[in-house]
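USER: If only I could read backbone structure tokens as easily as an amino acid sequence. It would mean a lot if you studied the pair and described how this chain folds. Here is the record:
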Amino acid sequence: MILSILRKLGGALVLVALVLALPAWSGGDDFVIGDARVKSGSAFSGYLNVLEKDGVGTQIPYTVIHGAKKGKVLALVAGVHAYEYPPILALYRVKDLIDPKALIGTVLMVHVANLPSFKRRTIYYGPDDWKNLNRVFPGDLDGTMSQRIAAVLNEEVVKRADVLIDMHCGDGNEALIPYTYWMISGDKKFDAKTRDLALAFGIPHIVIDESRTKVLTESKYLGNTAILQGKPAITTEAGYLGRTDEESVARNVRGVLSVMRHLDMIDGDPAPAADPVWIDKYEVVYSKWDGLFAPKVEMGYYVKQGQVVGTITDYLGQRKEDVKAPFSGILLYIIGTPPCNEGEPLFEVGRVKEK
């Protein structure tokens, strides 16, 4: 395969060569990914290999459902943060719901993007390099484990997709209401497509995100990496505190199927958000201390500027800080378990856009 040969070239040359060698798949009898060729009207599950470095490598489990008729390639990625279980479980259900012979286009599902983290049950960070996978895109095939995973996802998934959904939820420590990030590129026609995509997923709260960098080499986030390569993408958040509750799993399944109907991949009408709540400003508040965090407000509640949202104490129980809301808005998520670490998130506030 081209990918395996180019990897041997090493470093930045690999990434340049791959950009030239692997354009988005444009149709044909077979869908090619890794070492696999998937016939139209069929499905295939396998693993993408992340090559070893210093004796440590991993795999990325995926499924391709390659429709009998040509259409868009929809990439669905779960488990970038691998303690976020509802999207992971949802894609296994979606896998069994799609008939490849009736499908128009192709669905490429990444079941668990960060398998080392999944195995070790870690939040935020990969256990091998203690990096956040969703902060190291587009990755580096010569880098640490997280950087290599990101590079493989970019080359094998993002570049083969026409549309991408990066599926998240509240991590093991995050009490989070369902919402979607609509990332603004600055291109009005392109942004209209991603707006429609965000609405099609069906979650009422939608964050208008204008904060992402426009430099691909510094893209950090999977969804932003797709957008900067011309692929409409959204990031969804549905689930909380590492739970596997049926409501959250089903919400993710419904969202995926609605998007597929929006893209005319399967029969039926999409079920977009009927009365969306637009968040036009958001801010994540980070801890200045190591210690224990005690929330004073629950997820989804409105807070006023200056209101105490939670209290930090040190390991001896001494109060260090009353952490306050930076502005008035809805509490999109808040840490729901006691440990807090300097530099890590405590909560996120979103300002509701006036109609």
In short: Helices lie at 2-7, 11-21, 85-97, 115-120, 145-156, 188-201, 222-227, 246-262.
